[in-house]
Amino acid sequence: MEDFDVVVLGAGTAGETLALELASEGVRVAVVADGLVGGECPFLACMPSKAMLHSARRHRLCGGPDAEAFREAIAWRDEVAEHRDDSAHAEELARAGARLFRGRGKVSRPGVVEVGRLEIGWRDLVVCTGSRPRLPRILGLEDLPCWTSDQALSSPELPGSLAILGGGAVACELAQVYAAFGTEVTVVQRSPRLLSRESPWVGELMAEVLGSQGVRVLTGRSVLGARTTSSGVALELEGGGEVPADRLLVAVGRDPNTRGLGLEQLGIATAGPLKVDARCRVEGQAHVWAAGDVTGVAPYTHTANYQARVVAANLLGRRALADYRAVPRTVYTHPPVAAVGLTRERAEEAGVEVVSARVELSEVARASAEGERIGRLELVADAARGVLVGASALGPRADEWIGEAALAIRAEVPVEVLADVVRPFPTYSEAYTEALRGILRELRAGVG
Ligand SMILES: Cc1cc2nc3c(=O)[nH]c(=O)nc-3n(C[C@H](O)[C@H](O)[C@H](O)COP(=O)(O)OP(=O)(O)OC[C@H]3O[C@@H](n4cnc5c(N)ncnc54)[C@H](O)[C@@H]3O)c2cc1C
Ligand SMILES: NC(=O)c1ccc[n+]([C@@H]2O[C@H](COP(=O)([O-])OP(=O)(O)OC[C@H]3O[C@@H](n4cnc5c(N)ncnc54)[C@H](O)[C@@H]3O)[C@@H](O)[C@H]2O)c1
Question: What intrachain disulfides are recorded (predicted)?
Fold first, then answer.
């Protein structure tokens, strides 16, 4: 049996980043990968979806035949997704000095992972096994040939009509993509609004945006059953009515991959995400760590990278604690949604005395120059401490300028200082100046 200082289970964003960091510092590290090295993000998720959103936008702006534009979009998507060839990722690991074991890893006993018939020993184990699409319990759904985002982002097919179950990030992004190429898209969201974890106005504005691009958005509607029809599928809605479509995309969230890893051998509960402390160590364990979607903490690529860096620092003997107060949440539609920290509603629920301000982006000079009419920024401050605790935005390039709020929240920059910052004219970031001046006025007036 070959022994390693660290064995990493899963070579997605978290596992790859961690292994590279550790190997470059001379740690003897092994990575076990049962899928593509690099994981979901480059090949199946973030990158192909952003490539499709880019092509969809271009097609909406430039026009032309849908089918031809879609074929070009697919070609671009597959190029961006490196044609699912992970050899460059595997080579980078090898160059850094990490050992790659292809296959499914499982803890066979404390200190040992088996990969097929091979056993490898670990002093520390890091679980980076990611997540998988959730299938809701709906009568008839299991028997249908439905898509998850993986299939939607692999297929060359442009359906005539598409029903999307769910109303989160995947649903909004892919609804916009398919609608741009002429597919009749219906989104069926069970919650009262799209993007249900954001402030209510965000989901309402997103529904307006998608509606204006031809997407039919049904919110607050549950699906009772699903069946195959001669032309595709049909969803039966609670309260009456059906949604027929050529294709069904299920996008109701993802579940962490904790099962079948042998973690019970170590006394780790595998129902739900792996609970980690601020150092990303699995609760109750001295030598088992976790990073990425499997922890259930803000499931984004940037979180997976961040947690991997926190684990690496701790394993290298530098005590590092994760701080999740300012992890951005972004949906890359056009215009995008970008939020960070607490929504006004969450801050109030947490008992924070809140001062908030909203600015319509149509009031910002850059929006006039670019003819953009839709957009808003809302800032939320803690009245007692005089610092920002949250920001929500929907508007042109909000995914880029949300960084200013992330820094302000993370560094606890006083609102006084933020309001005094000079921002370039004419940029969307000038919305911050207006919103911050509003908050400052209220703080000075002593209004909570
Ligand atoms: C359609 C879509 C679009 C997205 N877009 C964005 C975006 O724009 N921005 C963003 O920040 N996030 C986005 N995300 C989320 C992002 O993809 C994930 O948060 C990120 O990939 C998580 O990385 P990870 O390392 O935790 O998991 P993964 O990348 O899933 O890697 C886990 C790896 O572990 C492997 N594995 C599992 N079990 C075992 C085992 N027993 N042995 C060996 N290997 C194992 C799996 O095969 C997999 O390769 C998107 C997600 C989806 C679905
Ligand atoms: N831009 C990005 O960063 C990005 C893009 C896509 C996906 N992702 C990540 O991928 C993961 C999966 O995304 P997602 O959109 O599938 O999940 P999600 O959790 O973001 O949203 C799922 C939505 O489906 C709804 N829902 C749940 N059950 C339902 C049912 N039976 N019928 C109808 N609606 C139902 C919920 O109300 C929720 O709003 C998330 O963690 C997300 O953060 C991120």
Answer: 41-46
